[in-house]
Amino acid sequence: MSFLDIIKDKLIVSCQALENEPLHGSHIMRKMAKAAQEGGAVAIRANSYDDIVAIKEETNLPVIGLIKKDYEGYDVYITPTVDEINTLIKSGCEVIAMDATNRPYPDNVSLKDKVDLIHKAGLLAMADISTYEEAIYAAEIGFDIVSTTLSGYTPYSKKLVGPDVELVARLVKDLKIPVIAEGRINTIEDLLMIKEQKPFSVVVGSAITRPQLIAKRFVDAYNNK
Ligand SMILES: CC(=O)N[C@H](C=O)[C@@H](O)[C@H](O)[C@H](O)COP(=O)(O)O
């Protein structure tokens, strides 16, 4: 079955912990992915070469790979350059996710050339966008999948507490390529509201795999914050 067949109308779980997070480490992320698999996740979204390799070994699930890396003077941090793409190609992931927002990139390679490089390696390219216009452009230059990952995380996109339901709805209506709903889907109610918009698939991360944030929600509720 192709990657797209596997994920259609199914849940993808993002398993990520950066260096400053309590669960950082591939020995932990592989178990997080295993737990997601036992819960029924059909694919994993993962950050870093080491985590992807470990998660593949542990679960054999298809992986959407990315590398978060900061470059001085630039705001983009999800697979910002060709260097990260080349590392991801070697990791065994099926899909490479990258920032596809309308902001400067640390290398002089166009987004289109990056998509072509990913296709040459036989992989799919996922555009992490923050607005409707960025998604339209991403589809035009050949991205295979668009995800609403960065809505709320660029200075010019809407800041919402929950998921960007309206953006998902508009993209589903207007784009021919698969639209993945991702970002701040924190409750079952959020998920059901998103599902009504009929995205191709959904990614849930923090609400499942960042226990420090889950704990905080409970603590805040208990303390009436
Ligand atoms: C904005 C950003 O850097 N998002 C990252 C992208 O890979 C991850 O930290 C998120 O966990 C992922 O997008 C899933 O979203 P949520 O954790 O809200 O369910």
Automatic annotation (TrEMBL):
GO cellular component, as recorded: cytosol
Reaction catalysed by this enzyme: an N-acyl-D-glucosamine 6-phosphate = an N-acyl-D-mannosamine 6-phosphate
Keyword Isomerase set for record: yes
GO molecular function term, any single one: N-acylglucosamine-6-phosphate 2-epimerase activity
E.C. number(s) listed in UniProt: 5.1.3.9
Keyword Mitochondrion: no
Enzyme class, spelled out: isomerase
Protein's name in the database: Putative N-acetylmannosamine-6-phosphate 2-epimerase
Organism of origin: Acholeplasma hippikon
Gene expressing this chain: nanE
